[in-house]
Write a structure and sequence with these properties.
CATH superfamily of the largest domain: Ribonuclease H-like superfamily/Ribonuclease H
Largest sheet: 2 strands, parallel
Helix content: 40-55%
Shape: elongated
Low-confidence stretches: none
Number of helices: 4
Number of strands: 2
Strand content: 5-15%
Radius of gyration: 19 Å
CATH topology of the largest domain: Nucleotidyltransferase, domain 5
Mean pLDDT: 86
Strand order of the largest sheet: 1-2
Structural class: mainly alpha
């Protein structure tokens, strides 16, 4: 979702669409970070409206260990950019693209696996 669309209104629309499409016979678990639009009055009121149908878990503030994408960003930085001095931006982009291509190859040995534990 583009940055200009990330706001309370779009978040609430997402929650409404999620809940409308969720099967009624199965629990819905929503894991949220501490983005300001997740904590707006309107967002919290909507989440309270669905409290009997969904369970919300809040990630602690500044807890990158619990957010899997943070581990991938570290992997990307380590593989593509760390300890490299690029002469041009194009070389850096090529390096990042190479790591992302490896990530999208499900059989590649250097692919980052989100299922690995971080402890």
């Amino acid at each position: 979702m583009p940055a200009e669309k990330k706001n309370t209104q779009s978040f609430c629309l997402f929650i409404q669409l999620l809940m409308a499409s969720a099967p009624s016979d199965r629990p819905v678990v929503i894991v949220l970070d501490n983005a300001s639009y997740h904590h707006s009055y309107v967002s919290e009121a909507l989440l309270a409206f669905y409290e009997n149908q969904a369970t919300v878990f809040w990630l602690p503030p500044y807890c990158s260990d619990l957010n899997p994408i943070e581990r991938f960003w570290r992997h990307l930085k380590d593989k593509a950019c760390a300890n490299h001095l690029f002469e041009t931006i194009a070389e850096m982009i090529h390096s990042v693209d190479k790591v992302l291509t490896i990530q999208n190859d499900l059989s590649h040995a250097e692919r980052f696996l989100f299922t690995k534990t971080f402890c």
